[in-house]
Every structure is written in C-alpha cells, then in structure tokens.
Write a structure and sequence with these properties.
The structure holds two protein chains of two kinds.
Chain A (H helix, E strand, L loop, with lengths): L1 E6 L6 H11 L2 E6 L10 E4 L19 H12 L3 E4 L1 H8 L6 E3 L7 E9 L15 E8 L3 E3 L2 H9 L3 E5 L11 E5 L5 E4 L18 H13 L1
Parallel strand pairs in A: 1-2, 1-3, 3-4, 4-11
Antiparallel strand pairs in A: 5-8, 6-7, 6-9, 9-10, 10-11
Helix pairs in contact in A: 1-5
Chain B lengths: L1 E9 L6 H12 L11 E8 L5 H15 L5 E6 L4 E4 L41
Antiparallel strand pairs in B: 1-2, 1-3, 3-4
Chain lengths: 223, 127
C-alpha cells in the first residue's frame, strides 16, 4: 500500500505525514509539487504548511502546480485524497471540495489541542472511527475559518458530508463549527486539524489521529 | 504597454477580520466617523500592446481563475476607459473608490493625497 505525500515549497508537515503513514502500516511515497507523476501511489495526502508562502490566497498557487493537475484527475476517479490544514485549503481552491477557508475570526493564529466529533465514518479516511466519537488532535492555523453559502452548508449537512466538527468553543469562526468535509463520493476529505500530529503518545495529544491513515488502508484493501 | 487593474474584494457577506482590525485601529489613532472598513486586493497588469476586447476577456478569465476565488470574492476589471464587473451583484451600498476607473491615466494614491475622498464623482458603471 503506497500513500503519497506531496511536498510544496513551504510545506511543513510532509515529514510528519509520511511518518504517520508508516505508523499506520503503509509505505509513504514522497511526491514533489513540480512533478505530474504520482509514482503509482494508491492514495495522496496534501500536508499542512504555507505552500507558496500563502501568497495570493492560501492554496491558490498550489492549485496550479503540476502535481495538482494529476491529483485532481485521480481524485475525480475515486482515489483517496486527504488534505490537512493547508491541504484542505488547496482542495477548496481546486474545487474538489466546496467552500473556502478564510482568516480566523479572532485574527490570531491558533495552536492547541482541539476536541472534535467525527460525524461521518463512511469516508475513505474515517471508516475506522465510531460515528459520533470525540477525538483530540492539534489545531494550528491562521486561516481556518470554513465558509460557504447557506445552500452549500445545508447541502453538506443534508448529505452527511460534514466529516468532523469542533466540540466546545469554536476555535476559528468556522461556519456551523465545521472542521472537515468530504466530497460526494467520500474519497476526498479536507480537515483543518492535524491527525498526523496525533499518532503516538510520546508527542502530541495522543493517538486519535492514526485512524485517518489506517482508514485509508482499510478503504484501499476493501477495493 | 497599457495597464489593466483588477480589484478584488471579499463578498459583502464574508467576514473580513483584517478590515475589522484596521477599523478598530482608527479610533485609537483619533480618526472618528468611519463606520466600516473592508480590505481588498489590487492587481496592476501591464499588458503588451493594445487592450482589445479579447485581451480584456482574457484578463477577465485570469481574474476569475487565479486572482480571485469566486466562492468568497468579487472582482472588477478596469482600464482607463472601460469597467467590467466580474460575477458581481454588487450591493448598491458599496461605492468603489474613484481610483479604480482612473487607473489607466495616472493615480498612485499618496501623490494626490487621500485618494479616496473623491469617490462617487467617478462611479464605475457596473453592467
């Protein structure tokens, strides 16, 4: 099982994401933003960071990198794709997911352990969670406020496409406290908090994030 | 060479924390009477040759593809003469500063002082 992790100029969490893939039991494959070749991977992770310095808008330049044309294509064909934080922003800019992420309403960078409720366990990245389970992982962003128009929000809720929601105080002004969403098919997931930082007890708030990566393995095994 | 300006603003319904921060700073500096501040982006494109209709249409595509995110932002493309609105249903309340329509001719704000006070005198036509 080969899970690719894309490195953009300015990516920060690509190494942690590779490590999480290894912990979960798959082989991490480093992918480069300038390559269109996905090196035969079975799934793709777009990691957190500040790709292209967040110039223009977060994820706006990355969307047009050579690797993303390939990722958009395979995502539309059903390959599991997870965008974490900056990766979530890139998925929205690529129109693989609806809505957008804007600056936190309180204008401060947030960095903390965050409680989340996993609400959709039918996606390629959350099938190993129990529906409604509360988990804890690191949230760290300056532009994590999820916004979309009301019809889109209603559609996401109605179709059960809200994957994770913040529990307790809304940390960044995300509408309806949305922390993560999925596409119609459930193979593309965008998530603002960082599961790759929550895979072992030694560092991070626990191991609650590991199941994102084992879920992908499960989803690929089922096929 | 000709200059085409693309102004990008967050849609009215989208929260603008940066604008709020600027607005919050004004009273502390002793400036009163500003009801709200919205912050946007201005792109100045130096275009080779004439600005034809085709060229403007292309810049329109540039604006909606890269320069703005239509989910959260509106844009206005302007040259010395024409103004094209992009996917806007601009609320009547938002008055665009006059500097956008006169971009082709000169105006760098600063040289002419507070380049916004004459807004309204040159309201861009929004088709």
């Amino acid at each position: 099982m080969r899970i690719g992790v894309v490195t953009f100029p300015g990516s920060l969490d690509d190494v942690d994401a590779c490590r999480a893939v290894t912990f979960a039991g798959a082989e991490p494959v480093a992918l480069w933003h300038g390559d269109e070749d996905l090196r035969g991977v079975d799934a793709v992770v777009l990691p957190g960071g500040f790709s292209y310095g967040d110039y223009l808008r977060c994820g706006a330049i990355s969307r047009f990198s050579p690797v993303m044309s390939a990722v958009v294509e395979v995502a539309r064909e059903g390959m599991p794709v997870l965008g974490i934080c900056n990766g979530f922003q890139i998925l929205c800019e690529s129109h693989l997911l609806p809505g957008a992420l804007i600056r936190n309403d309180h204008r401060k960078f947030v960095c903390r352990d965050q409680r989340l409720r996993i609400e959709n366990t039918r996606t390629a990245w959350t099938n190993r969670y129990d529906e409604g389970s509360e988990v804890s992982m690191v949230l760290k962003n300056g532009e994590g406020g999820y916004v979309a128009d009301e019809p889109t929000l209603d559609m996401l809720e109605g179709e059960g496409r809200v994957v994770a929601r913040y529990v307790g105080e809304n940390p960044n002004g995300s509408l309806r406290a949305i922390a993560g969403i999925t596409n119609e098919r459930g193979n593309v997931v965008g998530l603002m908090p960082h599961p790759e930082h929550a895979i072992e007890d030694l560092c991070g708030p626990g191991t609650d994030g590991l199941a994102f990566f084992t879920s992908a393995i499960e989803a690929l095994t089922d096929v | 060479m000709a200059r085409v300006v693309v102004d990008v603003m967050l849609k009215p319904e989208i929260l603008d924390p940066q604008g709020k921060a600027v607005h919050g700073a004004l009273p502390r500096l002793g400036f009163d009477g500003v009801a709200d501040v919205r912050q946007g982006k201005r792109f100045e494109l130096e275009v080779e040759g004439e600005v034809t209709e085709e060229r403007l249409a292309e810049i329109h595509r540039i604006a909606e593809t890269l320069l703005s995110n239509p989910v959260i932002e509106d844009f206005v493309v302007s040259t010395g003469s024409t103004t094209r609105a992009g996917s806007t249903t601009r609320a009547g309340s938002t008055t665009r500063a006059g500097s956008t329509t006169r971009a082709g001719s000169t105006t760098r704000a600063g040289s002419t002082g507070a380049g916004t006070t004459d807004a309204g005198s040159t309201t861009p036509e929004v088709p």
